[in-house]
Write a structure and sequence with these properties.
Distance between the termini: 47 Å
Oligomer: single chain
Radius of gyration: 29 Å
Number of strands: 18
Shape: rod-shaped
Structural class: mainly beta
Length: 201
């Protein structure tokens, strides 16, 4: 919205904005009378993953016009007529992760056979995740593949593995039951966690 706050008619009013990906329509406004405002100039921008990870889109535009003598009259955009504060559009961040653990027994499940666990982590949120680590408190379990450096939105990764050797206590119990935990960081450095399950849900 451009407003003529001076005492002369303005012509050839143009708005420009250096933000990559922004398309502006409605330029130029041919004339703008003293005290008049116009909101015919519009801009459209498609939100990117980088914007979501930042949690906001911040940008600044520039209005340029000509006075009756042909001199340029300019103003940097603001949130009100009397300031030049950048325009900030908040974007909701919903980071989340899901951990699915599956087991495969090498052999028939006798004493000394090895269970191999596959830990599949999936980014189920709308922000990128970093430093994905899987931990499991079960005594005797060895985990390899930590950490996963980055996990994009919608991506899954099953490179983290675990190995465990069956004990006599396991055979006496007739089963091995355990639970793992996936921990990652969102773009703000907050922990995002999930307890392992048999499916993502």
């Amino acid at each position: 919205a451009v407003t003529n706050t001076g005492n002369t008619t303005l012509t050839d009013v143009m708005v420009s904005d250096p933000m990559a990906g922004l398309t502006i329509t409605g330029n130029p406004i041919q004339t703008l009378a003293v005290g008049a405002s116009s909101s015919v100039i519009k801009g459209t921008y498609t939100i990117t993953q980088a914007d979501i990870d930042a949690g906001k889109v911040t940008n600044t535009a520039l209005a340029t016009a000509k006075d009756p003598k042909g001199n340029e009259v300019t103003d940097t955009s603001g949130t009100a007529v009397d300031n030049n504060n950048p325009t900030t559009t908040p974007i909701t961040q919903k980071p989340s992760i899901a951990l699915v653990k599956t087991a495969s027994v090498a052999g028939t499940g006798i004493l000394g056979d090895v269970i191999t666990y596959t830990f599949a982590v999936t980014n189920t949120g709308n922000t990128s995740l970093t430093n994905v680590v899987v931990t499991d408190p079960m005594v005797g379990l060895t985990i390899t593949g930590n950490p996963i450096a980055t996990l994009a939105v919608g991506a899954s990764n099953a490179t983290i593995k675990g190995t465990y050797t069956i004990t006599q206590a396991d055979i006496d119990a007739g089963k091995v039951v355990n639970t793992a935990l996936a921990t990652a960081q969102d773009p703000k450095g907050n922990d995002v966690t999930d307890i392992s399950g048999t499916t993502v849900t």
